[in-house]
Amino acid sequence: MDEDLDFELNFSGLFPHPMWLAAATGISNQVFLWxxxxxxxxxxxxxxxxxxxxxxxxxxxTFIAAxxxxxxxxxxxxxxxxxxxxEKTKTFFxxxxxxxxxxxxxxxxxxxxxxxxxxxxxxSEGQYGSRTSLFEEGFEHFNDSPxxxxxxxxxxxxxxxxxxxxxxGSGWLSxxxxxxxxxxxxxxxxxxxxxxxxxxxxxxxDKKLILYESVFVFLCAxxxxxxxxxxxxxxPCILFWTILGYLTAYPKFIEGGYETKHKVLxxxxxxxxxxxxxxxxxxxxxx
Length: 287
Fold this sequence. Notes:
about 75% helix, disordered N terminus
């Protein structure tokens, strides 16, 4: 095995495992893309170029981390962010076309970085690949208690009950296996409550909301094959529930008068700027 391939197969950056790196770079992808849209209005070409390079570098690390789920989740969440920022359908396709051209031009670099991802596809066995045994055992014991599940932080290994930190292979399936249909329906109800916030974000002046939403979409998609939603202490778990709480509460926050206060603050800042301009003109006229 050559040195480049060995480096790629074992690279995890500052994290103890490549999968931890994949989650971090997936979030980083959204941050860079959001910063690009934020500074784009200021028309600073140098900053925009640096942010595009930052996004491409972050995406490169996602490939190096060899997480197929992180790559796909990054693409989905990026499309969501572009959609939320684009005010018109024409603008949306314009941004998507621009992104597609850049990715095509840089594709040889990403293909070289995808060695481990390709190996995963080549040596994948079973219906669900490396997670086949995890899912099969989970579904087997889920049938024993479909309403309430097998219990929090609980799984069965060789038909023996094990309680503690576990690897479920999927955040959403871990909810179903551990909390049963009752818990899964409850979580689904909470998540559906964020739909109203997504509708608000396209018209809201609070563009940070779009960043939170795209990161949340990434975590939701990434959790399809990464089981950290019910793993307290793991940073994506903390981030997932924090953002979920924020997005759920945001519409009530708006209805509670935040929007009115925000407009008052904007008006105050505008008057302050206007006053500074008048003072500057007055001083210039005296000179």
